[in-house]
Design a protein that fits this description.
Length: 131
């Protein structure tokens, strides 16, 4: 699944600068997170009480939110080709990363994923996300 995603991503970035990432197949990690949530739902229907945070959910501010993936959606070497060049003071609603449904990160030319509101919530260390 990941190999197909990478091939399609490479093909589409050769044709256009901002490909529609929603048309790519999901990553194997995203599919796994979805399967965890489906398994949890089935177990709840069967009356089994499992901890949702062990099955594709994270507790945030007293509510459960789905974990979409634990790995980057795009390989880091390709992500750098699609970085934004927004103001160092922060990215706004017209940020290309935000428009394509992605987050800003250290690969972005000016904001570096630090000075804008379009950053990932979760790991404090970007290195763990890009590994």
């Amino acid at each position: 699944m990941d190999d197909l995603r990478e091939v399609l991503y490479r093909e589409r970035t050769e044709k256009t600068k901002l490909p529609d990432l929603s048309t790519l197949p999901c990553t194997s990690d995203a599919a796994a997170q979805h399967c965890y949530r489906v398994y949890l739902q089935v177990q709840q229907w069967l009356g089994n009480d499992l901890d949702p945070t062990a099955w594709g959910w994270r507790a945030e501010n007293g509510t459960l939110t789905p974990i979409p993936t634990t790995k980057p959606a795009v390989p880091p070497e390709l992500q750098s080709r699609l970085s934004c060049k927004c103001s160092p003071q922060g990215c706004g609603v017209r940020c290309p990363c935000r428009k394509r449904g992605d987050v800003c990160g250290p690969w972005c030319a000016k904001c570096k994923g630090e000075t804008c509101t379009n950053t990932i919530e979760g790991p404090e260390d970007w290195g763990t996300l890009l590994d």
